[in-house]
Amino acid sequence: MTSHAGLSPFDPPDVEWTPVSPKLARARFIMVAVVGGLPLAGGVVAAALSGLAWLWAVPAVIGLLMLWDGLLIPRQVRAIGYAERADDLLIRKGILFRSLVVVPYGRMQYVDVQAGPLARAVGIASVQLHTASPGTDAVIDGLPPEEATRLRDRLASRGEARLAGL
To answer: Which InterPro entries match (predicted)?
Structure first.
Protein backbone atom coordinates (compact mmCIF):
# COMPACT_ATOMS: atom_id res chain seq x y z
CA MET A 1 0.00 0.00 0.00
CA THR A 2 1.39 3.42 -0.94
CA SER A 3 1.28 6.33 1.44
CA HIS A 4 -0.23 9.56 0.13
CA ALA A 5 0.51 11.57 3.27
CA GLY A 6 1.64 15.07 2.49
CA LEU A 7 0.49 14.96 -1.15
CA SER A 8 -1.72 17.82 -2.24
CA PRO A 9 -4.22 17.54 -5.10
CA PHE A 10 -3.00 20.98 -6.20
CA ASP A 11 0.69 20.05 -6.44
CA PRO A 12 1.05 16.79 -8.38
CA PRO A 13 4.47 15.19 -8.05
CA ASP A 14 7.04 15.72 -10.80
CA VAL A 15 5.30 18.81 -12.23
CA GLU A 16 7.36 21.89 -12.99
CA TRP A 17 5.10 24.94 -12.91
CA THR A 18 5.62 27.89 -15.24
CA PRO A 19 4.65 31.16 -13.52
CA VAL A 20 2.83 33.99 -15.23
CA SER A 21 4.41 37.42 -15.70
CA PRO A 22 4.63 39.75 -12.68
CA LYS A 23 3.20 42.37 -15.05
CA LEU A 24 -0.20 40.81 -14.33
CA ALA A 25 0.02 42.30 -10.83
CA ARG A 26 0.59 45.76 -12.32
CA ALA A 27 -2.52 45.38 -14.50
CA ARG A 28 -4.58 44.28 -11.50
CA PHE A 29 -3.29 47.20 -9.40
CA ILE A 30 -4.37 49.59 -12.16
CA MET A 31 -7.84 48.01 -12.23
CA VAL A 32 -8.18 48.35 -8.45
CA ALA A 33 -7.08 51.99 -8.66
CA VAL A 34 -9.58 52.78 -11.44
CA VAL A 35 -12.52 50.81 -10.06
CA GLY A 36 -11.96 51.84 -6.44
CA GLY A 37 -10.46 55.28 -7.00
CA LEU A 38 -13.56 56.91 -8.47
CA PRO A 39 -15.92 55.84 -5.64
CA LEU A 40 -13.21 56.71 -3.11
CA ALA A 41 -12.85 60.21 -4.53
CA GLY A 42 -16.64 60.60 -4.70
CA GLY A 43 -16.98 59.49 -1.08
CA VAL A 44 -14.31 61.93 0.09
CA VAL A 45 -15.95 64.81 -1.79
CA ALA A 46 -19.42 63.89 -0.46
CA ALA A 47 -18.17 63.60 3.12
CA ALA A 48 -16.21 66.84 2.93
CA LEU A 49 -19.05 68.85 1.38
CA SER A 50 -21.81 67.45 3.61
CA GLY A 51 -20.01 67.97 6.89
CA LEU A 52 -21.46 64.70 8.22
CA ALA A 53 -18.79 62.84 10.19
CA TRP A 54 -20.38 59.39 9.71
CA LEU A 55 -20.18 59.80 5.92
CA TRP A 56 -16.39 59.42 6.17
CA ALA A 57 -17.04 55.72 6.79
CA VAL A 58 -17.78 55.27 3.07
CA PRO A 59 -14.34 56.33 1.77
CA ALA A 60 -12.69 54.58 4.73
CA VAL A 61 -14.32 51.25 3.81
CA ILE A 62 -13.48 51.71 0.12
CA GLY A 63 -9.88 52.58 1.02
CA LEU A 64 -9.57 49.50 3.25
CA LEU A 65 -10.94 47.27 0.48
CA MET A 66 -8.44 48.76 -1.96
CA LEU A 67 -5.62 48.19 0.54
CA TRP A 68 -6.76 44.58 1.03
CA ASP A 69 -6.75 44.04 -2.73
CA GLY A 70 -3.30 45.63 -2.94
CA LEU A 71 -1.97 43.18 -0.37
CA LEU A 72 -3.55 40.13 -2.01
CA ILE A 73 -2.73 40.80 -5.67
CA PRO A 74 0.99 39.89 -5.55
CA ARG A 75 0.23 36.61 -3.77
CA GLN A 76 -2.59 35.80 -6.18
CA VAL A 77 -0.35 36.37 -9.19
CA ARG A 78 2.42 34.21 -7.71
CA ALA A 79 -0.13 31.41 -7.18
CA ILE A 80 -1.00 31.25 -10.90
CA GLY A 81 0.93 28.79 -13.00
CA TYR A 82 0.66 26.23 -15.75
CA ALA A 83 2.45 23.07 -16.75
CA GLU A 84 2.58 21.27 -20.08
CA ARG A 85 2.63 17.51 -19.70
CA ALA A 86 2.69 14.78 -22.34
CA ASP A 87 -1.09 14.38 -22.55
CA ASP A 88 -2.58 17.42 -20.85
CA LEU A 89 -2.16 20.99 -19.66
CA LEU A 90 -2.42 21.84 -15.96
CA ILE A 91 -3.51 25.31 -14.77
CA ARG A 92 -3.49 26.25 -11.11
CA LYS A 93 -4.55 29.41 -9.31
CA GLY A 94 -5.83 30.65 -6.00
CA ILE A 95 -4.60 31.16 -2.47
CA LEU A 96 -7.55 30.49 -0.18
CA PHE A 97 -9.81 28.95 -2.83
CA ARG A 98 -7.36 26.94 -4.89
CA SER A 99 -8.10 25.50 -8.29
CA LEU A 100 -6.36 22.99 -10.52
CA VAL A 101 -7.71 22.51 -14.03
CA VAL A 102 -6.51 19.59 -16.16
CA VAL A 103 -7.23 19.97 -19.88
CA PRO A 104 -6.43 16.91 -22.03
CA TYR A 105 -4.99 18.00 -25.39
CA GLY A 106 -7.42 15.74 -27.24
CA ARG A 107 -10.40 17.61 -25.75
CA MET A 108 -9.36 21.06 -26.94
CA GLN A 109 -11.41 22.50 -29.78
CA TYR A 110 -9.53 25.76 -30.24
CA VAL A 111 -7.17 28.13 -28.45
CA ASP A 112 -7.48 31.94 -28.31
CA VAL A 113 -4.95 34.62 -27.47
CA GLN A 114 -6.52 37.81 -26.14
CA ALA A 115 -5.20 41.16 -24.92
CA GLY A 116 -7.35 44.17 -24.11
CA PRO A 117 -6.06 47.75 -24.02
CA LEU A 118 -4.80 47.51 -20.42
CA ALA A 119 -3.12 44.16 -21.02
CA ARG A 120 -1.39 45.48 -24.14
CA ALA A 121 -0.28 48.61 -22.26
CA VAL A 122 1.48 46.55 -19.59
CA GLY A 123 2.72 43.92 -22.06
CA ILE A 124 0.68 40.81 -21.26
CA ALA A 125 -1.86 38.56 -22.97
CA SER A 126 -4.22 35.71 -22.08
CA VAL A 127 -4.53 32.25 -23.57
CA GLN A 128 -7.99 30.71 -23.46
CA LEU A 129 -8.62 27.04 -24.19
CA HIS A 130 -12.03 26.01 -25.44
CA THR A 131 -13.27 22.47 -25.02
CA ALA A 132 -16.51 20.65 -25.83
CA SER A 133 -17.71 21.32 -22.28
CA PRO A 134 -18.11 25.01 -21.32
CA GLY A 135 -17.36 24.08 -17.71
CA THR A 136 -13.81 23.07 -18.61
CA ASP A 137 -12.78 26.13 -20.59
CA ALA A 138 -9.56 27.39 -19.06
CA VAL A 139 -7.74 30.73 -19.15
CA ILE A 140 -4.11 31.58 -18.41
CA ASP A 141 -3.83 35.33 -17.76
CA GLY A 142 -0.65 37.37 -17.59
CA LEU A 143 1.57 35.77 -20.21
CA PRO A 144 4.15 37.76 -22.18
CA PRO A 145 2.78 38.07 -25.75
CA GLU A 146 5.57 35.90 -27.20
CA GLU A 147 4.86 33.13 -24.67
CA ALA A 148 1.12 33.40 -25.34
CA THR A 149 1.74 32.95 -29.07
CA ARG A 150 4.13 30.03 -28.50
CA LEU A 151 1.71 28.34 -26.09
CA ARG A 152 -1.25 28.83 -28.46
CA ASP A 153 0.63 27.28 -31.37
CA ARG A 154 1.97 24.40 -29.29
CA LEU A 155 -1.40 23.59 -27.72
CA ALA A 156 -3.16 23.78 -31.08
CA SER A 157 -0.66 21.39 -32.67
CA ARG A 158 -0.84 18.98 -29.71
CA GLY A 159 -4.64 19.08 -29.82
CA GLU A 160 -4.64 18.32 -33.57
CA ALA A 161 -2.20 15.46 -33.07
CA ARG A 162 -4.38 13.93 -30.33
CA LEU A 163 -7.53 14.28 -32.44
CA ALA A 164 -5.81 12.68 -35.43
CA GLY A 165 -4.90 9.72 -33.22
CA LEU A 166 -8.54 9.04 -32.28
So the answer is: YdbS-like_PH
Whether residue 165 has pLDDT greater than 50: yes
**Do 131 and 100 have their domain in common?**
yes
- Rounded Cα distance between 104 and 68, Å, is 36
DSSP 80: -
- pTM to 2 decimal places: 0.84
Task: Say if residue 58 is in the same domain as residue 128.
Answer: no
**pLDDT of the residue at 27:** 97
% of the chain exceeding 90 in pLDDT: 67
Contacts of 68-77 spanning 24+ positions with Cβ under 8 A: 69/28, 69/32, 69/36, 70/29, 70/32, 73/25, 73/28, 73/29, 73/32, 74/25, 76/28, 77/20, 77/22, 77/24, 77/25, 77/28, 77/142
Calculate the CA 54 to chain-centre distance: 37
159 and 123 belong to one structural domain: yes
Q: For residue range 22-55, what is the model confidence (pLDDT) as tens digits?
A: 999 999 999 999 999 999 999 999 999 998 999 9
The range of the structural domain enclosing residue 30 comes to 23-76
Q: Is 76 helix (H, G, I), strand (E, B) or coil?
A: helix
> What is the C-alpha separation between 3 and 156, in angstroms, rounded?
37
